């Protein structure tokens, strides 16, 4: 039986391994991310495309199937906001944590922006949109 401590230790080890890997291959570097978003260097774009391809093959082998149904109303605007924030700040929500751990302190502004954005999303959803919370935990 798994206990919470073992799960926490496994998550910490996995997170440290991810951070180490991301830092050593340069994906935590703001300049590298900027080059990807401005199409100056397609290396990261190919890495992401390769990861998606591997997952597609693994899902096919394991037999994971998407449940048919409607796309959640917040997927497209959320994706646009997520991508825009990533392009401006130089990282998805995990990368600024790696950047801070590497000594890049301006990433603290990105982390604060993520927290403010989450609060604004909850506020706007409660006040205006009332979207199904689904699995995103609004």
Automatic annotation (TrEMBL):
Keywords: Membrane, Transmembrane, Transmembrane helix. The chain crosses the membrane at residues 7-25, 45-64, 76-98, 104-124. InterPro entries: Sulf_transp_TsuA/YedE. It holds the Pfam family Sulf_transp. It comes from the Bacteria. This is Sulphur transport domain-containing protein. It comes from Saccharopolyspora erythraea (Streptomyces erythraeus). The lineage of its organism: Bacteria, Bacillati, Actinomycetota, Actinomycetes, Pseudonocardiales.
